[in-house]
Amino acid sequence: MKPTQMIVGFVRRHAVILLVLVVVFSAFAAWGVTQISVVTTQDTFLSAESEAFKGHRAYEDAFGGDSMLILVPGSPLELATPEALQGFAELEAELSSDPRIRSVVSPLTLLAGASTQAGLDLGDPTPLLQTALADESLRAQLERFFRNEHALVMCRLAGGLTIDEQSEAVRSIQEAVDASPFGSEAIVAGNPRMISDITSAIFSGLIQTGVLAVVLMVIILFIAFPARWRLLSLPLVLMGVLWTFGVASAARVPLTLVTLAGLPILIGLGVDFAIQFHNRYEEEMRRGQRPSDALVGAIAHIAPTVGVAVAVMILGFMTLLISTIPAVKDFGILLAIGAAVLYVISLFVLNAFLYRFDRRPRAASAETGAGRGRRLLERDWLYLSTVLPAVARWSRRHAVWVVAVSVAFAALGFVADRYLDVQADIEKLIPKNTPGVVALNQARDVVGSGIELPVLVQAPDVTSPSFLEWLTRFQTETVASHPDIAGADSLATALGLRPGEQAPPAERVAAVLDELPPEISSGLVTSDKTRASLTFTMSNMEMATLSELIDDLTAATGLPDGVTLTTGGTATLTARTVEAFTKNRGLITGMGILVVLLGLLLIYRSWRRALIAVVPIALVTGWSSALMWVAGIDLSPLTAVLGALVIAIGTEFTVLLLSRYWEERGKGVAHDRAMEEAVTKVGRAITASALTVAAGFGALIASSFPALHDFGIVIVIDVVFALIVTVTVVPALVRWLDREKAEAIRGPTKP
Description:
The structure is a single chain. By secondary structure, the protein is of the alpha+beta class. It has three domains: about 400 residues, Multidrug efflux transporter AcrB transmembrane fold; about 120 residues, no CATH class; about 100 residues, no CATH class. About 65% of the residues lie in helices and about 5% in strands. The protein contains 32 helices and eight strands.
């Protein structure tokens, strides 16, 4: 007995039991979803084995995490009052009580230390300020905390925080500032806040995106898929998405920002699969078949075809495993699981439902209200049954020109791809009105910088005169050679050293460090004197500039013996993550094409059939690049996965059309007639599928994030391109490559 016959028999005999089991399994899947691991650590986006991540961890172990900056408006004299100092004291106490905050430094920190050393009263700030300003090292430190009529409070976060913990620390800082006397006018800024706001916005935006995707699909199904129970696929697909995340939980695939973005994609794919089975069932019922026979026809013809499409789709998704980004690998695994789960639901659950509840014959009297309502329901609003065959006929008559123009346009795209700019400026990838970005720009206006790049400097003795003289020269030269660096902060800066000056002996350096508050000294040098912190502040957030600086620092030559430099912080992770997203884009796309081609060769055992199915979709990748070049759309980190997604999803359309074509050829139908019949019978379903998939992605266009918005536009266009090549290039290629006699055609090999 054939597998399809076994499936049909199982569905017919156990339809009710299947539906009951679905409810039970959905309950278990829902419980599994509650157990899924939500990962928000930094190694989600960068491998823990990468040099950048190791450097980041090394810096955190020595000096903690990134810093947050609180800017309090006012001059030194305005803020050096008993009331203001009391406000700083209360703010410091509140922030220091949070275990996620490693240290808090403000003007009060320095003045309190000076008052202890000088024996002065902290409540009388005037002589205290005079004493502090008279001390060179204290004056240099105090100047760090007053910029452009603002006092600075620096909060260094603890090391090893997850993104969620970092976000909680940011909220704690904001709440403490709001409750302080400075709350109404103070600015809270820094990389951690920006990342926190972006993460929060993405999570909330994806929920809205999922809802919008469902709404768009309802509209498309109503217009483009005239069938009874046309919306049935949506609740089944939502159930399939639930199952997918339940299985992902069991497979220990974590939930990340990237895997969560698979939600609208999975909804689109699920509706796509359901449409194919439902369309064939409708076709069989309209031919006057009994429900049992319609079920047989739907499963016998669609299960193998969609099975082939799902198999190559899974192969395409799995090519994402070659990415160096852990979240992208998990994304590929999740989509592969989802494709398999959604296929099983369409095969068993959808067909069981149709067989059990959709048994009425399709014929109806034209005079009855029911008949008129059904004709309205089944109206071909887009006239696809007429337009698509006409397009296919035109393509076959002009096969040479269709293929030539398609290849030429794709070739133009492949050439243009080299000249596409990679948009790595984080400010242009996120909404400008994001509170964290607004605050960072405000801080930039006050202190002249917007982002920090911390560097871990290791040496036998970072307090020795020779090291300090080298450090002074190095940071000065680095600042001078990079116009986007606003300044640098280090032990040399704290000592007020300038290039060419002789550094004090190690004993004097130790004495200065002892005089400084421990919150400051611990952020400059470790207790064993073998590691020092060098922090560059950047005037902008362009990733290209930041990456260039990181490359220069990590490849620095002429370092003294025993001295090493390692960049760390969120800035390093962000820059290297953007690079990793874009680095393997071409490789991922090429591997996607190769893997899908090899998969089809294995299934079909015919290079002609494999090429006809893959080549048109490969052309789409070239068309996409050409369109982006013409429209002036830059590449973004998200486009790294675009090629693999288009290849995986688009190949399904060609496989579905070709499978129906070979089915008709197997009946002895001539070439032209077989293609016209295939386009007529499955063209509308393919169009509905393409539009629903496009709707899943198209919901991203409504995102406030420019990166997601542009990604949505490009991939929607690519899906439409995939549909276009399916009904134009495929018929043209078939005219060239399928020269076999009708009786020799047996259809695709059953998987």
